[in-house]
Structure formats: structure tokens, C-alpha cells
Amino acid sequence: MFLSNIQLLNFKNYEEAHMVCSPQINCLVGENGSGKTNMLDAIHYLSLVKSAFAGHDQQSIKHQSGFFSVMGSFDLEVRKHKVLCGLQAGAKKVLKCDQVAYDRLSDHIGRFPVVLMAPHDTDLIREGSEERRRFFDTIICQLDQHYLQALMNYSNLLKQRNALLRQCQPVGRIDEDLLATYDHALLQKGQAIAERRQVFVAYFEPLFQAHYRELSGGREAVALNYRSEVLTEGFGDRFRSAVQKDLILGRTTLGVHRDDLKFSIDGHAVKRFGSQGQQKSFVIALKLAQFDVLQEQKGFKPILLLDDIFDKLDDQRMHHLLSLVADGRFGQIFITDARPERTKSLVAGMAQVKVFRVDQGKISEEE
Ligand SMILES: Nc1ncnc2c1ncn2[C@@H]1O[C@H](COP(=O)(O)OP(=O)(O)OP(=O)(O)O)[C@@H](O)[C@H]1O
């Protein structure tokens, strides 16, 4: 699968841009702040219908304009698909594939998968559990529409239960019947989500470990440990009896939305004990395993977006990644770099390379 071209209107710092892409390697070079990452983000929109960076879609509309649109054509085996994602300020996002609007944006997730490697990836290790849940949930959602629906239902139920808790806070009493309805549904959905996560992590972990071994020379034993409290005996009772605490705090304190994944090296938490190099290898191995899983499950290679990673990687890890590129392990790749000469020399001799110069929200192909 590859993106053959992309057109932007009023997207972030681009007023108008058109890029005819190589099915293999696309290098975007230009000064800091010129719009390289924004172009990757536009590709991310076509795949996952949201920004990889901005918290709100409205932030992706170019300043002083009232809408954005991103349009792209994907070649998937012999078929071509035109995807359009647009947003009018203050309105709902629109997504069309082959000129037909989706009723549910979520139906699009997983059709044109991408894997993004970016400088902030180590947040996966350093930040709280939400980042790790989001990483795994995003992959599973691309593979399994039922999981995506279950997650969305769970999140809606959780919002409703939390609203009920807050409503009842001043009086200290709660509508027991309504609460029981939410509890029952949350417990049921939560269990299904936890079981799916557990199965997925068991499948993902060996792929991740193989990449880590290749990157680190096999010196350390790494593990991903997912153990949800939801799957432990008597969870339903503990969940229900936490209601007094929930009422005081105005939120649901137990459930899959609190799950964490423990990342470890030789039995110790990577977050606390991993060196910077180990943490980098850890996240690269996670992303490479994400690529493998999507490829294996979809039957084609996802698009790989490499944002500014050469600046952040040391020689050993960079060469490993480039050797995978040279071996043809990946399909279409987009690489951004503020230092054109470095990228050009790294990809010299590789087939089907296109270099694009980005300058203050304008993009043009170099000869
Ligand atoms: N909604 C928006 N409207 C206009 N400009 C925006 C908007 N959102 C972001 N920008 C601008 O886009 C620029 C950043 O672009 P981008 O992150 O793509 O840069 P880059 O080329 O990847 O830079 P670096 O090499 O530093 O990573 C900033 O100047 C920022 O102000």
C-alpha cells in the first residue's frame, strides 16, 4: 500500500500544497519550523483521522482561515482509493473515501495503516500509563473494529458514570438503579477489553523482543507486562464497593481505563533504571513490532513516517534502521530532516528516492 499523492488546503502552516509521492522513499528536508512534520501529520490524518501531535482538530486549521482539507490517493494492490478529511471551524470533521462519507469515522480506522516514529516517542516510557494504553489501543483498534467499538462504548459509559457521580456529590446519595446499570455494562465491556489486551500483548511481546535483541546485540532480557486488575478474582465486588471513594473524588477509580503496562529490562522498570540508549532501543523496538503486527494482520506494509529521528538516534541505532530500509523490510517511507545533506547521503544509492524541499509552508520536489 502506498500514498501516491496528497493535497492540502489551509492545513497548519500550508495554504496550498501538492505532493506526488514515491512509492518507496520520500525525504522532506528544510529548516526548523518549515512544515515537514506538518506534512507527516496530514498523512496521519488520512490514516487515523486525527493529528498525531495537536490535541484538538481545530488547531490544525491554518491561522486566520475557516477550514482545512487533506486529500490523498492510496494505491492498494490494484485498487486506488481517494480519501478526504476536512474540517470547517466549529463543525464536525468530515471523512470520505471514494466520495462516500462515513457514518462513523471509526469505520475508516485500520484501512490505511501508518506507523510513526517521532522524537517524543520516549514519552511512552517516561509518561504515565495513559500513553502506553493509547499506544497498544491504537494498534488493536486498527486490527479489530469490535475492540474499537467496545473501547468507545466503555469511554462513553465512563463519562456518564462520572457525570452521575459528580451530580450526586453535593447530596452524597446516588441513584442506585442507574448506577447499577452503568456498573454492569462497564464491568462487562471492561472485561472484554482487558482480555483482548492480554491476548494482544502476548502476541506482540515476542516480536518486540526480537527487534530489541537485534538493536542491542541481545545482551538484556526485555519484557512487557500487562496484568489488569479487572481480570483478578473478586474485581466486580471491589469495583462496586469503591463507590463511596468514587463519589468523593467524582470519578471512577477502578477499571481498564486505569490499566498499565510495565516495561522492564532484566526485571527492572525501564522508566526508572533504563539508560537513555536502552530507552531509545525500547521504543524503536516497540514501533518496529507495531509495523510487523500491522503488516502480518493486514497482509500489506503500513506506511512508515520517520519524523526527525536521525537527529535523535546514535550511529548504531541509525544504521540498524537504515539497514532495514536498505533490505526492503519497509514499504513506503516518509523521512523528515532539517539537514538535507545528511539524509541525501543516507539514502544515496537506494531505489525510488524523491527529495522534497519544504520552505515556510511550501513544498517542491528537488531535481
Ligand atoms: N494551525 C496553524 N496555522 C499556522 N501555522 C501553524 C499551525 N500549526 C502549526 N503551525 C506552524 O507550523 C510550524 C511548525 O511546522 P513543523 O512542526 O512541521 O516544522 P518542521 O519543519 O517539522 O520543524 P523541525 O525541523 O523543527 O521539526 C510552526 O512555525 C508553527 O507555528
TrEMBL record:
ATP binds at G30, E31, N32, G33, S34, G35, K36, T37. Residues 22-361 form the AAA+ ATPase domain. Its main location: cytoplasm. It is found in: Cytoplasm. It comes from the Bacteria. Belongs to the RecF family. The RecF protein is involved in DNA metabolism; it is required for DNA replication and normal SOS inducibility. RecF binds preferentially to single-stranded, linear DNA. It also seems to bind ATP. This is DNA replication and repair protein RecF. It comes from Persicobacter psychrovividus. The gene is recF.
